[in-house]
Fold these 3 entries.
Entry 1:
Amino acid sequence: MRARRSLFEPAEGSLGRAVGWGAVTTGGAQAVRLGCQIASVIVLSRLLPPEQFGIVAMAAPVLAFVGLFQDLGLVEATIQRKTITHAEVNLLFWINMFISVVLSGLMIAVAPLIAGFYGQPAAGVLLAATSVNMVVGSATSQHYAILARRMEFGWTAVIDSVAAVAGLGTAIVWALFDPTFWALYAGALATAVCGCSGMWLLSGWRPGLPRWIPEASGLVRFGAGLTGFNFANFFTRNLDNVLIGRYWGVGELGFYDRAYKLLLFPLQQITNPLARVMVPALSRLNEEPERYRHAFVRVIRMVLMVTLPGVAVGIALSDVLIPFALGEEWAESARIFQALGFAGLMQPLNNPVGWLFISQGRSTEFMRWGIFTAVTSVAAFSIGLPYGATGVAAAYAVSEYLRTPLLWSYLGRSGPVQADHVLRAALPWMAGSHVVVALLWAARSLLPDTALPALLLATAGAYVGTCAVAALFPAGREALRDAGMLVARLANRRQAPRGAGSAQA
């Protein structure tokens, strides 16, 4: 068994092996959660009437906004810190708890206002009841941070998976006996309680009495910067919906919302789980700039290799993909999806920048970038708004292209990763995906008339074409060799006899 130096430090051993295992287990947990979400939509939609889901949707914007301030970035502060003590973690735990109690009281106070706004008393009752979930979630935060800091990703994956299954089961059983919104609430509460119990049990850490210590002020400042970014990002992510709904109505907003979610949801299933692995891993490498840079570049190349060809297909065949995925009545979303798709070509490269800002302790700079993004996005939305949802999507995509070189120049002013490192790593895949978009547009007449065969053939061609263009660059050939070696290692592990691995270790 590998020895661990303290309760807050990872066990001694290979960081690369820990990251690889973390990516696999976190991806598995993400698959379980995704499966539970899909099952929830299918099963609970048959057990509950639509108006019960509507009640939950009424409370959702308030919950999303309040959730921005729930942990104040203190989870990442614990994960990122080079060394941390029990006293510091203890203080952060009690700050989280205090904030959650204050926010819970605020939710209870505004519940009657929400009920009055919608003319639906149940929405206010649900909002007040959800304050309990917030307290339970805050009680989990520092225990999760400890497990992540120790890079025990397997345990967090198990906890997340069990909690998701428990929540789904609770919601279904409740709905069988009481087909109301309380089934959805019970499922969410069961998920939170199960996750909290698992984190407390497996982290091995218990809080003491609250006591202020001056050393924690830096952690609080770090968390404040991260919270500032989250607030600016929340503003950016929601303003486009507000503007389109206000000036173009619910129909146009519906088309935009479906196109936006269909594009971003698959991308988030890759980048979000990776963030849970990469932030702790990069934080441990801050004093080894070469290893830090190498780890980031290798992962970002893999992300671009996996995501960009699929986005290219969505852009070129949006008029085929949207009716196939959503139905013919959503065909008007195709142009919106196509415009957003160009922003989607940039986001797998730009979204992981948070890994770097956080792991390097640069939360204030991260917040400033978030504010800059919010201001420039508002300008883009304003320019595109007269042309409807498609205009907003196109203007946002243009702004994403314009911001990208500024983002990497800004981040590369300090730290192990500079703009030229990212340019060399990303250029082969960026060039390949843009070439594939043009080729698929040119070859539309050669594709089958039926949607599914056309999409499958285009997807296969997109991956082959993107890799072929990438192979023209030295960095692209290196990435392809890395991918080939990774596949070979996985294949060898599957074929190896059970005892071989342990003997070699």
Entry 2:
Amino acid sequence: MYLNDFSLTFTLVFIIGWYALQSISYYKFFEKADKPGWIGFIPFYNYYVHLEIVGRPKWWVFLLFVPVVNFFIALTIHLDLLKSFGKYSYFDQSVGVILAPFYMTYVAWSDTKYLGKATELPKRKRTFSQEWFEAIVFAVFAATFIRWIFMEAYVIPTPSMERSLLVGDFLFVSKINYGPRTPKTPIQIPLTHAKIWGTETPSYLEWIELPQFRLPSLGKVERNDVVVFNYPVNDNYNQRPDGDYHPLDLKTHYIKRCVAIPGDVLEVKRGEVYINGEKGVDPELMQHRYFIETDQVIRDRVFSDYKIWEYGPAMKPDGAKGYIALTTANMAAKLAALDFVKSADPMFMDAENSEPRIFPDSRYFPWNADNFGPLEIPGRGITIQVDEYNLAKYGSTIQDYEDLEDVQIDVDKLVINGQEVSEYTFTKDYYFMMGDNRHNSEDSRYWGFVPEDYIVGEASFIWMSMDERGSFLNKIRWNRLFNPIN
């Protein structure tokens, strides 16, 4: 089960239900603290009284409306309230956070007494190890929560997005832009992904597997967004030592640019992307493969000066000598202007030359990375007629990502749960992803669409960048620090 967006009705019911439970618990808490119980139902004022009875500054009520800060303030005063009513144990504090506001309602209406302001109560005697343990538990909990809800750090390991993103760039990826996903496999070592650090051992247990939901978001995936997602294909990138594959939310992370959204018709002509018949927007630092014709040796330093890191000597079939380099059109033009360079021309495949690995099926669609499509991107509510051509195009998507229990495809027949169907309506949105380094990117041109439930977040900004070719302080690319990602 997967929800792309909560409906307005669901959202209102959720908010009203949460607030009702909170107000009911406040009513009893306030009565026990010799405050009028009815204040518990008054918005904002109830938070003010909450702060008063736990002994925190009243002006903290304003911090409850400051993003990110409000999480830590709410958590602090929430735990303070439990302490004010005698709930000090790790069990009470943990359950009070995980099951709030249900547990708070239970505590409020159970046989508890108000002991006084949490900030003024005698502190429990704790050993040095207990203090450190509590500090570590809180830090891990806070980091895990922020990582799940707000932002997560990633590093660029491959050059598929160069030069927009470089190998060694450390990014912050926003989860709230597209809405954070609830975990599918909740039993997991905190702050890990699929493996225990430095090993091939899975960091999770599959004893419990939950349906996945997406919380409300600030927006949706749009064309040209730089997106982090779980690599959808079950191959060696997602395979575990036991031969099985990681669950959806723990599959390998990929980062690419979304070039087409549901309902778009995508076509690539001689390396240029077209959307719905119109030329798409090219990334500013998009790279292609160029042949740099010259009869001289070009030193590594020259390539480095022109920000070219992928290159090598080559010879054309007609005998022309030079170098093949992956670079931008702007840098290629600058190289072509050098006295010892005869030309710098892009190298695109002919439309007649198909690639065997091309998506969706080279036997039906003899395309290549430079000449691809037209291909309509499927989306929720889009219906296709079942025939041999459409099954060759969309069959694997229906079979692998539509969460159907039993799908059988036989050339021009689609059988779902034992029933042959003549048409199929998609239940999810899908996206087409490409790397900015167009001739060195494993992307949707080779393995297909990215389903909506595989989307992790939007790349926001670079917080650190390390160049392994540099030395000492030169390893840090200072000019890239805190750059936004476009």
Entry 3:
Amino acid sequence: MNNETVKNRILEKCLDLERFSKELSHVLPKTVEEYKKSDILIKSTVERRLQLISDTEIDILAILYKELNMKVVGEDISLIAAFSEIFKEKINKKVRELRDMRNKLIYEYKSAQFDEEVFKIATENLDEKDIISEIKHSIAAK
């Protein structure tokens, strides 16, 4: 795949990130108390958008990983760790925390503070501009 095709795929995925975070911002209640009282439709929508954001971030990292011919292989956490030298620590931490939440959602690891955790992660992912900026910077440098 040529560089331009790869960049276009990544940019399309960035548009998906923007869309998913915008959709999240439209449904996420303003406070954790409101979220805890929300009906199943709101909670399910928030949780699904978090999953989509996380999966899209991992898709982008996988494309970059392959394109940059990086030598680390493994699961999602290894893939995220491979970008610790490329992305700012704040970005890597945000991607890791979202991936952890995504896995809790998928495998239904629910604690007593589950709603609070979901709300916190959702609030942190209402705007993906910081991650998109890092991604665009990395493909521009390539």
